[in-house]
Each structure stands twice: as C-alpha cells, then as structure tokens.
Design goal:
The chain has 410 residues and is mostly helical. Helix 1 packs across helix 7 and helix 5 packs antiparallel against helix 8.
C-alpha cells in the first residue's frame, strides 16, 4: 500500500510538468513569442540554482517535507492558473513580461518539488524498513508514466498550441496538493546547532574542484547539460512547423507532435533497466561517452528527418533520447557517489544537478534560442542547420571528454 501511495505521488508530480514542458514552445510560437522560447525554458534552470536549496533547508528544519511539497504545488498551481487566466483575457495581445513573470513564479515553486518528492519517498521507505535502492526505481517509473499521460492528454484535447496546457498543469498540481495530506509524515531536524551558509547550501562540495578528476567531470557535466533542455523547448515547434508544407500537413507527427515526442519518455523507462548491464560491461566512462554520442544522434536525426518518409528518423531520435538522457544522468550520479567522501555525497549530488540542470541547461536554452533566432526570417525558421549545429556541439564535447576524462576505473 505504501509503494502504491508513493507511486501515485510520483505520477502526479511529473504529470504537472508533462502538461506543458514539451508543448509550451508551440504555444509560444502561436502567440508570437518564438524568440522568447529559450527564456521560458531557461527559467527552469535559473530557479534550480537556488530554490531547491532554500526549500531543502526549510524542509530539514521547520516544515515537514510532505507538507512543504503540497504548499509548493499549491502556490505553483495558482500561479499557473493565473498565467492561463491572463493569456485567455489578453488573447492576441498577450504581453511577454506579464506572462513570463507569472510562469516564472510558478516554475520557481515547482522545481524544488522534484527533490522534495524524492525526500518524501526516501523517508517513507526508510521508516518502513525497505531498501530504497531496490524499492524506489519502480516507484519513480510511475513519474515518467504520469509525464507521458498529460503529454497525451494535452495532445488529444488539442491544447498543444493553447494556454489550456497551463490549466491542465494547474489542476494536477492542486490535486497533488490535496493528496499530500494523505502522505506519511516526514521528520524535521532537531539539531539546533548553527550552520554556516556554506554548509547550509551544500557549498562545501565545491571543494571537489580542487581535484583535477572531479573538476574535469563537473565542467563536462555543465557542458553536456547544455543539451538537456534543447529538444524540450524546440522539438514540438520544429515538428509542427511542417504543417506549412502541404505534403506533411496531415501526417500523424504534425497533428500529434506530443504523442510522437512521448516515445522519448517511453525510451527512458527501458533504458533505466539497461544501465546496470552497461555499467558492468563497459564501465562508467564508456557509458557516459555512449550518452554523449547519443546526443549527437538525437540532434542529427532531427535535422535529417521529416514527418513523412523520414519519420523513422524522428522515431529513432526519440528512442536514442533514453540513452542520451539517462545514461549520463544516472551513471554520472553513480560516479559522484562512488568517488566522493560520504560526508559530501549529498551536497556533491546537488552540485552535479546544479552543473547539469541548473547552469548547463540555462546556458543551453539561451544559446539554442540565439541559434534559432539567427536562422529565423519573417517568422519562418530554417531548422536543419540549427539541429546540425547542436549535433556538432555534442560531438565536440564527446570527443573532448574522451580525451580529457580519465578516471582510474573506466
């Protein structure tokens, strides 16, 4: 019963995100904000630099994690409703500053919940005497299923190009807020000793940069993190842009881009299961290299494919995404865990996420937006060179990583 409750929590947690993450770009194109797509997606990385740390301190010291999880979703959901209400009222005259501000406030309270939901699950499983390493992954898979479900719902209800995707996200967020009242309670720390700002924010992990091996690893983590949000922001607008070409206008991919893209998340669930075999067979460095070169394929296949006779390239790109995303994130996390002092492991994991999903992803989305803008004339984007530029970047990072990163065990 506990596992079911936690699985449902994860389902709702990621369903909130899936409602808009892959389709928001198409909505922004529809309201004339194609040049601001990168800013919307970059905001997720910007708030991830500081908000999870702040909420983590609050959960550790004052507010139980499950209660703070609910409160964050309540606030995020209300701001998402506000963004949808404003967009509905403003219509064609939607102002970027207002919409972006409301969206940013929602995201600022949503992003910390990714870590808070993990804390709730780990706490509940530990208190129940269960092995988190064995028990948590099957529970976490339901998060990906929830993400896929709202992707499909937004697609099938015709919300990909409208603000109703924000309404969908807000509704699920409020449902999760109510559901958190049924979750097991998490303890807060009784340690009243004063901690330095360095310790409170987990900044002690930055001392790892003194080690050449770790410095190289974290720098490359940031460089690879550049690739993480590019397809979330631009894949849907790219695929739906083919509607302007008569021979592709009625193809399944153009009509249901979100469903096509959801193959990426399906691939994730399978690739997670393959990681133990690949880690044992090839070692950490080679598994991370596989992920890096998978990003090259991910982008190049977008550049070569189309929704008609070339749709198989899109499908292959979606399948490759599971390798590209999971192989680096999970193997990288294991590398950090196995090579850092146990006193620094938690903050080192936070540093890994900061470098990839925070700094790296922010730089990546803004840079990708600049590239897309440079190849856009009169509202029409020449997408192929954009994808090839992204692929070339991933290739350079992969080759440099192979040459520079040399852990003792590969």
């Amino acid at each position: 019963m506990l596992k079911f409750r936690l699985a449902l929590m994860n389902f709702l947690e990621f369903a909130v995100w899936g409602a808009y993450l892959t389709s928001m770009g198409t909505y922004l194109v529809n309201i004339g904000m194609v040049q601001q797509i990168g800013l919307f997606y970059a905001m997720q990385g910007i708030v991830s630099i500081f908000m999870p740390a702040i909420m983590g301190i609050i959960a550790d010291r004052w507010v139980p994690a499950q209660r703070l999880l609910g409160l964050c979703h309540l606030v995020a959901g209300l701001f998402m409703f506000s963004a949808a209400y404003y967009a509905n009222s403003a219509g064609a005259s939607t102002d970027f500053a207002v919409l972006f501000s409301l969206y940013s406030l929602s995201v600022a309270f949503y992003m910390p919940t990714l870590a808070l939901s993990n804390s709730v699950a780990y706490s509940a499983l530990t208190n129940a005497g269960l092995d988190t390493v064995k028990a948590f992954p099957p529970i976490r898979v339901f998060g990906t299923i929830g993400f896929i479900c709202t992707m499909w719902a937004v697609d099938l209800m015709g919300f990909q190009a409208s603000h109703y995707q924000f309404v969908t996200s807000g509704i699920v967020g409020i449902v999760l807020f109510l559901y958190t009242f049924s979750l097991p309670s998490c303890a807060v720390s009784n340690d009243n000793s004063k901690k330095s700002i360095v310790d409170a924010f987990g900044l002690r992990a930055f001392t790892l940069f003194r080690q050449k091996k770790m410095a190289i690893f974290f720098i490359f983590s940031m460089m690879l993190g550049v690739s993480l949000q590019i397809t979330n922001g631009f894949a849907n607008p790219f695929i739906t842009s083919f509607k302007a070409i008569p021979e592709y206008a009625d193809t399944f991919g153009v009509q249901h881009a979100n469903i096509l893209i959801s193959l990426s998340q399906m691939s994730e669930t399978l690739c997670i299961l393959l990681i133990p075999f690949f880690m044992k067979r090839f070692g950490i460095k080679n598994v991370m290299l596989i992920a890096m070169f998978a990003w090259v394929l991910r982008f190049a296949l977008f550049g070569l494919g189309n929704p008609g006779s070339g749709v198989w390239m899109f499908v292959l790109s979606m399948i490759v995404y599971g390798v590209a995303f999971d192989f680096f994130n999970i193997s990288g996390s294991l590398f950090v865990d196995n090579t850092t002092d146990h006193k620094l492991r938690s903050s080192a994991q936070g540093l890994f996420m900061l470098m990839t999903n925070g700094i790296g992803a922010t730089i990546g989305t803004l840079a990708a937006q600049a590239i897309v803008n440079a190849h856009t004339v009169d509202g029409v984007t020449d997408w192929q060179p954009c994808w090839f530029i992204f692929a070339a970047y991933a290739l350079v990072v992969g080759v440099a990583f192979a040459l520079c990163f040399r852990p003792k065990s590969v």
